Amino acid sequence: MKFAKEPYLTVNLILAGIIVLVMIYSAIFSPDTNNYPVVCIHEKLTGEPCVSCGLSHSFSLILRGRLDEAYNWNIYGMRVFLFFFLQLFMRIVFSVVYLKYSDIRKQLIIMDIMGSIILFLISFRQFFVYLLHYS
Amino acid sequence: MEDIKNKTRQNLGIAALITAIVTFVLAVIPCIGLIAIIPGIIAIVLASVGLSHAAKDDSPRGVLIAGLIIAIVASLISFSQVFIAGKIVDKADKWQETIEGIVNDVQDEVLQDLEDTNVSIKIQNGDEKIEISAGANKKEKVEELEELEGENTSIADTLEQN
Hints:
The structure holds 2 protein chains of 2 kinds. By secondary structure, chain A is mostly helical. Chain A is built from 8 helices and no strands. The longest helix of chain A has 24 residues, at 77-100. Chain A is globular and about 55 Å long. A two-stranded antiparallel sheet of chain B has the order 1-2. By secondary structure, chain B is mainly alpha-helical.
């Protein structure tokens, strides 16, 4: 079993599984019934909504194709959703390339790390700005 | 036996790295950032245990170090949210004063505008028509008063706002 021998493939497989779980969570819980188990701890503590409030609703609405409503719930919802979606895509593609081309594995891992960091910073930029603003 | 040890160490490294990455993503989301401290600590423990095992037999530890660094940074971000929440609460307490200040400023501006306006009232009853014009302009009133007093007047009246 190649996955057991290669840590990179194992990491990719588990991360892809986590992203799929996020998608399933967004699909199961509906914004119409508002039955989300995760509440904003930040809002509970401060009494003020934060920059990431409405992200679960936004994800659920994006999965249901209601993009305008998703944008209203959280303006950064689409960006963060795209990050997870692209990561899922990247985990699959990079794993296939890793298995197929054994001579470029090191370069592939470096490219994956750099790409993921850049994508993460772009997608979560506003959250960083928010955290830096109050810290 | 050695194979089992290596496999356990590798699994520890993978577990630490994945937990650290998940912690990092959770830590920067303000809604759930505070609870990210729990997986952060788990990742640090996993990486530390893996590193201590790796140090004994001098085996590769790149994944473990990466996991440890990411976990520490993520935990720090998560922990910093306690202070951020505190600062927001402090700011929320000051919002009442800020809003009062804004209301007072608007009130002053409105009064200033009213002071400079000219009011004209027209009353018409059949053929009778009365028109009252009152210029509230302070400058005009001062000029009017000075004109009435004349040039050689000893009275030095001023128009002061109450």
